[in-house]
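FORM 12-B: Structure-to-Sequence Request
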């Protein structure tokens, strides 16, 4: 069992959970992920680390309430426990020696962008962060980003309720046009990463994306997380989650992500109905 130390609700549907996991906290690096199971009857889901402390022995992750498991997670509090937490999994994000880097975090992807930007800055890279969300209510970790030694933090919202009224691709294109970056890292919804990669491709700026395909075992055995990168079939869990954004087949990725969308919504609705019945 893995005791929950703290929880925090960041927006209407986004939550943060901190779990005691000393062995995992001792080894995790930016860009890696974990797989958890809430209880014996639960599915295994992957979530990327948003923070950790090797000294204090805790790891933290942020998730959006979408399916049944994330709904269950959102109802847990400090003092509760998770049955399984496995990690760190995946390859760490490459940091250091990149020069001037633009780290783009969209939506819940900001949770992954935060430790990545922090690690890059600590390794001596010059980091500009572009943080995007649909509106102010969905903007997360802005204060945490502002505390990092960044060159600049650019905030964008679709409706202009915070920062610039723009998509994240707009300031990214401006940086490319000015010749102000040597590398880009995009983390967020697949459609956002697709257009970030399309933006940088025109300027020949190398671009890394952190993919979030459907995943089951996290060890490369099941093949559920396969992605097409260039002429190769690779696996998000063991070959990634970071890949060359200019080579990823985003249409295939998004199609595969939608396969169980209806089942996910139905399971979440059923769980919420069960909770409502218990409360009554």
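FORM 12-B RESPONSE
SEQUENCE OUT:
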């Amino acid at each position: 069992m893995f005791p929950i130390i703290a929880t925090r609700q960041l927006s209407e549907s986004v939550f943060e959970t901190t779990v005691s996991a000393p062995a995992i906290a001792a080894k995790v690096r930016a860009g890696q992920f974990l797989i958890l199971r809430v209880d014996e009857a639960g599915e295994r889901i992957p979530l990327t680390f948003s923070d950790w402390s090797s000294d204090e022995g805790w790891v933290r992750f942020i998730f959006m309430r979408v399916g049944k498991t994330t709904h269950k997670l959102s109802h847990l509090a400090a003092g509760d426990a998770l049955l399984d937490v496995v990690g760190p999994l995946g390859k760490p994000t490459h940091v250091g020696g990149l020069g001037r880097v633009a780290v783009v975090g969209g939506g819940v992807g900001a949770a992954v962008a935060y430790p990545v930007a922090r690690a890059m800055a600590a390794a001596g890279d010059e980091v500009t962060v572009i943080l995007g969300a649909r509106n102010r209510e969905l903007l997360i970790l802005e204060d945490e980003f502002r505390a990092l030694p960044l060159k600049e933090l650019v905030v964008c919202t679709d409706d202009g309720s915070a920062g610039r009224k723009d998509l994240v691709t707009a300031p990214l294109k401006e940086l490319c046009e000015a010749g102000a970056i040597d590398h880009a890292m995009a983390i967020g919804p697949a459609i956002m990463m697709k257009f970030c990669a399309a933006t940088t491709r025109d300027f020949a700026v190398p671009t890394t994306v952190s993919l979030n395909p459907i995943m089951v075992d996290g060890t490369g055995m099941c093949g559920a997380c396969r992605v097409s990168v260039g002429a190769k079939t690779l696996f998000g869990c063991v070959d990634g989650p970071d890949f060359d954004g200019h080579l990823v087949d985003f249409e295939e990725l998004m199609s595969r992500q939608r396969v169980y969308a209806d089942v996910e919504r139905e399971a979440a609705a059923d769980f919420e109905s069960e909770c409502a019945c218990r409360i009554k």
